[in-house]
Amino acid sequence: MEMKKILYPLCCTCFISSALLAQQAVDTSFHTASLQHAKNVFNSASGIQSHLYNGEAYYEQRQTSEDDFPYFQTIDWTTGTIHYDGDYYENVPILFDLTTDDVITELPRNAAKVKLVNGKISSFTMENRTFIKLSDPKIKSGFYGLLYSGPSKVYARYEKRRQERISERTITISFEPKTRYYILKNGNYFQVRSKGDVLKVFGDKKRELKQAAQKNHLQFNKNREQSIVKLAELYDSIQP
């Protein structure tokens, strides 16, 4: 949606009356309210502003199975939110391609898929998960799932690798998932794979966390993600 700029004439006299100043304040306030109203109307009608459509066409990857796909958790559109180029958008149809780290949305008029400009996305939400754009020399730049937002933050880097296999002149395409977990403590990122890795990061409370892990029956082999988050929560809860 293109908004026309309103230009106010310059006063040629040296004296501006208080009445004129008051009128300009009212006009400015009305103009701001009008812009916000137009934005709200457009968002409610289409769920997304045209400013978001400045990406490029997204071409779907070939799949040989409906149950094996390149996206995060689901092949269907998920309604989420996006913080894009300084603006916040709600009710946005989203797909997250884990093979390319691209966020995809859908044009409301013709259902075409658009790949958003990666560098303009600060964060987005989908499938009850918040993704944050992280950039640090110690980790790979990109979108990370925020699993725990306490003082000791926990992030997950979700990826999928496309594989092709040929058997009896038939090509089978698969997308193999891989997840890496990180803890942000005192401004540093630590990759953790096991309970031992987590206890090493939280070494100053190692004994207490060992006891807490046993008490809470944490099982890293069965649910590593939940166990890492629980230990981070417990660590923060026993800090002075």
Could you please describe the fold and organization of this structure?
The protein is of the alpha+beta class. The chain has two domains: 51-192, no CATH class; 194-240. 25% of the residues lie in helices and 37% in strands. It contains four helices and eleven strands; from the N terminus they run αβββββββββββααα. It has helices at residues 18-46, 195-201, 206-215, 224-237; strands at residues 56-57, 78-84, 87-97, 102-106, 113-115, 121-126, 129-136, 139-148, 153-167, 170-185, 188-192. It has an eleven-stranded antiparallel β-sheet with strand order 1-5-4-3-2-6-7-8-9-10-11. Strand 6 (121-126) and strand 7 (129-136) form a beta hairpin. The protein is globular. The protein starts with 17 loop residues before the first helix and ends with a helix. The model is unreliable at 1-48 (pLDDT under 50).
